[in-house]
Every structure is written in structure tokens, then in C-alpha cells.
Specification:
By secondary structure, the protein is of the alpha+beta class. It has 3 domains: 4-102, Rossmann fold (3-Layer(aba) Sandwich); 132-201, ATP-grasp fold, A domain (Dna Ligase, domain 1, 2-Layer Sandwich); 207-443, ATP-grasp fold, B domain (D-amino Acid Aminotransferase, Chain A, domain 1), CATH 3.30.470. The chain has helices at 11-23, 40-43, 63-73, 89-97, 107-114, 116-125, 141-151, 174-192, 249-266, 296-303, 307-315, 394-407, 417-424, 427-431, 438-442; strands at residues 4-7, 27-33, 47-52, 77-79, 101-102, 155-159, 169-171, 197-201, 207-215, 221-233, 236-242, 270-279, 282-289, 332-339, 351-352, 355-357, 364-368, 375-376, 383-391, 409-411. A hairpin with a 2-residue loop joins β10 (221-233) and β11. The longest helix is centred in the middle third of the chain and has 19 residues, at 174-192. The termini are far apart. Bound molecules: adenosine-5'-diphosphate.
């Protein structure tokens, strides 16, 4: 087993990975920017190295600085967490070229899935159902018109290099197409340095349901069931559940078998998530994430498994050691992403945390790097805590969530705790019959 792992990340996910390492008897190296010297992930690590100034491009995305930190401290492996360099195939290659282990999939699979056009082509070829759309890249407006004519309006123009909901534009009718096409290209060029776009049928009332998979380096692949991530604002997830209120165990088994068969054929390794839209009883693949996801804890709670521990063991060459039939789904879990933002305007609210009290009790988990006196820096993602609850039934999980949200206190900065309290009290959420458009209507912020 590895002796020392460098965690190329910050915040709650850096702590999450440290916890798994500690339990495996592995020493941890934190890296941090000058803005993060007082951060909890630095305080709790065995060693830490400053890798640059606040801007992420100079620190958490600074590959030479991170590789030097690994070399100076004698780390054997690097865990990238999510965001930052986690889906950067070049980084994974460089980690390996330096004789270290990248805790994640092969660079080739990261590269393949990072190009959403290639990802759809690969998954379609492996028998995974796809959202109807263009056959690959849509290079010009004339092709866009042809595709829209074939699949029917409304259509969605999406960035091949997409992520975080950027570079995605809806055209409701032929008259919108030119603007949507142009905007999607401009936005993706600006966000990703790549203006390639493709097209999909814009589904009017889907749920976002994704499957967590784990594969060892010896050909064994299992899935840990689904997460329902339909509650989104501007295509960004805000609250996630496992399992989905919309899925029967039979539908889960069927789709789970489809995804594990596809990844077995692909020769995939380590953790991954296949994201689908689910409407009228049909699944349609949209993309695959080749990393640990923010919402992984809901899966951990219902399956009773430590996904980060599994990632580390697999990267070290161990076998899974269990089969699909050994995986049991118990109860229901819900996660709220709490961000340092005004709960009404969603404007960022960095600053000093005057007081912090995390809820506790049976079935309550808080993944956060906050503490009283900590100053939330303005430079990074605004998520500051994840509250996860687990209970035998969905109704009991909702009661527990309401109770835990009431106990949770973060003073000194604005947070979205108040919004989550409103959501759990809403009969529509409680019924569980929501789609990806539900939250936009709930917060009065139609996007699309
Ligand atoms: P990103 O990589 O930017 O997150 P995704 O392809 O994962 O983009 O899509 C993000 C979200 O956008 C989905 O969860 C869903 O809410 C919405 N979306 C994506 N494709 C479609 C589609 N064809 N129809 C309707 N909504 C979609």
C-alpha cells in the first residue's frame, strides 16, 4: 500500500480524502495557495507545501508546482479530488511519467470522456442508450438546421469540452437557432478554449439520474446504484438523493447491468459516473465523469462503502474483492450542497465565519472544512459544506434533514442553508416527482 499520498485539492474534498488515507494508515501531503495557509486541509495534513499565489491557475492548477511538491515530500501517489486537475489527462500522464500513481482512471479514458462527442460515440457503440442528437460535431449553422429538422425542436447546443453547465444553449424554434448556435460557440471558446459544439434534443421534463461505478485493474466492474441529481440551478446540482424517488429496483438493476457491461468492454479502471436523463421510463446517456463526484456521499451512505478508500485500493492494484450481488442498498440518503452565497440573489458571500455549529446525531454527516474564525476566500468555488442524512425511508430522511438543517449554524457569511430549509418544507419536493426544471421555478429563476 502507498506510504504517502499528495492530495491536489482544497476544502472539504481534501479533508474527505485525508480521512480515507488516515484509516488506511497512509500519510498525507496537502498543497495550498497562499490564500489557504490557514485552511483546515492544511492544518490536518501530515505535511503541507505552498504551491503558489491565490489564483487557481497559479496554484491548484499549477502542474509543475504540484509535481515538485510530490517529489520534495516523497509522495507515492496523487489524488486529484474533483474539479481542478481531476479530469486533466495531461496531468494524469505527467504524474505517471514522474513515477507516481494517479488515483483515478487511465489518461486515455479521461481524455475520451472529456470530449463529450467522443464519449457519446464510445458509449453508443457499447450499447448505452443516448439522447437523440447530432452525429458528432456540428461545424456550421447549415448542419445545425439539418440536425434540428431531423430531431425536432426544442434543441440544445452543447460544448464538446463542456462542464459546469457552460456553453449550453436552448433553441426553442428555428428563429432561435442562429443565436443559440453562435452563443454556445462563443461561450465554449471562452470557457474551454475550444468552440466545438454538438446538438441534442432538449428534453422537456427529464430527471438527472447517474450511476456510480467502480472498476479494478483486473477487469472486475460493479455499480453502486444511482443518484438523483435533478435539483439544479443553471445546470448545477444543489441537492442529491440516493436512490432516485423515480426508480424501481428493477429499473436500477437493468440500467446498472447496462453500464457495468459497457465499462467492462471499455476496460475502464477506478471510479466513474455515467450521467443520464430519464424521462418516460427511458434512460439517455449525456456524459461520463472520470473522477470522484461532489455527491458521492449519498451513495456511500446507502451502500455502506467508502468510495475513496476503494479508489486508493484499486490504484494500488488491489482487486475489488466483492461482486455486484454483494452490494446492498439500505435506506435513503440526501445531500445538500451549502454554498457561501446569498440564498435569494446567489451572489457570493466570502468572508470571516463568526460562528460555526454543525448538526450531528444518528444518520447525519457533515463534510466541510469550515471552522469559526476561518475566512472563506473569494477565489474558489463557493461550496463550503455538504450536509448528508441517511434514514431507513425517504420520508424519515426528509424529517432528519429538516432537523439537521435547523441545527446547522454558519454566522458571519451568507449561506444557502435558508434555501435548503425552504426546499425540504415544500410539498413538491416531499412528493419527489420533480424534474430538472423544478428548482428554477421554485427559486423564480428560469434558465435553460
Ligand atoms: P455539464 O458537463 O456542463 O454539466 P451535462 O451534459 O452534464 O453538462 O448537462 C448538465 C445538465 O444540463 C443536465 O443535468 C441537465 O439538467 C441539463 N441537460 C443536459 N442535456 C440536456 C438535454 N438534452 N435536455 C434537457 N436538459 C439537458
Amino acid at each position: 500500500m502507498f506510504q504517502k499520498v499528495l492530495i491536489a485539492n482544497r476544502g472539504e474534498i481534501a479533508l474527505r480524502i485525508q480521512r480515507a488515507c488516515r484509516e488506511l494508515g497512509i500519510r498525507t501531503v496537502a498543497v495550498h495557495s497562499t490564500a489557504d495557509s490557514e485552511a483546515m486541509h492544511v492544518r490536518l495534513a501530515d505535511e503541507s507545501v505552498c504551491i503558489g499565489p491565490p489564483a487557481a491557475k497559479d496554484s491548484y492548477l499549477n502542474i509543475p508546482a504540484i509535481l515538485s511538491a510530490a517529489s520534495i515530500t516523497g509522495a507515492d501517489a496523487i489524488h486529484p479530488g474533483y474539479g481542478f486537475l481531476s479530469e486533466n489527462a495531461r496531468f494524469a500522464e505527467m504524474v505517471e511519467a514522474h513515477g507516481l500513481t494517479f488515483i483515478g482512471p487511465s489518461p486515455a479514458h479521461i481524455r475520451m470522456m472529456g470530449d463529450k462527442i467522443a464519449a457519446k460515440a464510445a458509449m453508443g457503440g457499447l450499447g448505452v442508450p443516448l439522447v437523440p442528437g447530432s452525429d458528432g460535431e456540428v461545424p456550421d449553422l447549415a448542419t445545425a438546421r439539418d440536425v434540428a429538422g431531423r430531431i425536432g425542436y426544442p434543441v440544445l447546443i452543447k460544448a464538446a469540452a463542456g462542464g459546469g453547465g457552460r456553453g449550453m444553449k436552448v433553441a426553442q424554434s428555428p428563429s432561435d437557432l442562429e443565436d443559440a448556435f453562435r452563443l454556445a460557440r462563443t461561450e465554449s471558446a471562452a470557457a474551454f478554449g475550444n468552440d466545438a459544439v454538438y446538438m441534442e434534443k432538449y428534453l422537456d421534463r427529464p430527471r438527472h439520474i447517474e450511476f456510480q461505478v467502480m472498476a479494478d485493474a483486473h477487469g472486475a466492474v460493479v455499480h453502486f446504484g444511482e443518484r438523483d441529481c435533478s435539483l439544479q440551478r443553471r445546470h448545477q446540482k444543489l441537492l442529491e438523493e440516493a436512490g432516485s424517488p423515480a426508480l424501481t429496483p428493477a429499473a436500477r438493476d437493468h440500467m446498472g447491468a447496462t453500464v457495468t457491461a459497457a465499462l467492462t468492454k471499455l476496460g475502464y479502471r477506478n471510479a466513474g459516473t455515467l450521467e443520464f436523463l430519464y424521462q418516460d421510463g427511458q434512460f439517455a446517456f449525456i456524459e461520463m465523469n472520470t473522477r470522484l463526484q461532489v455527491e458521492h456521499p449519498v451513495t456511500e451512505m446507502v451502500c455502506g462503502i467508502d468510495l475513496v478508500r476503494e479508489q486508493i485500493r484499486i490504484a494500488d492494484g488491489e482487486t475489488l474483492g466483492y461482486q455486484q450481488s454483494d452490494i446492498r442498498f439500505a435506506g435513503h440518503a440526501i445531500e445538500c450542497r451549502i454554498t457561501a452565497e446569498d440564498p435569494d440573489s446567489f451572489l457570493p458571500s466570502p468572508g470571516r465565519v463568526a460562528a460555526f455549529h454543525a448538526p450531528g446525531g444518528l444518520g447525519v454527516r457533515v463534510d466541510s472544512a469550515l471552522y469559526a474564525g476561518y475566512v472563506v476566500p473569494p477565489y474558489y468555488d463557493s461550496m463550503v459544506a455538504k450536509l448528508i442524512v441517511h434514514a431507513p425511508t425517504r420520508a424519515a430522511a426528509i424529517s432528519r434533514l429538516r432537523r439537521a438543517l435547523d441545527e446547522f449554524a454558519v454566522l458571519g457569511i451568507e449561506t444557502t442553508l435558508a434555501l435548503h430549509r425552504r426546499i425540504v418544507d415544500d410539498p413538491g419536493f416531499q412528493r419527489g416527482d420533480y424534474t430538472i426544471h423544478w428548482l428554477e421555478q421554485f427559486v423564480g429563476d428560469p434558465t435553460g
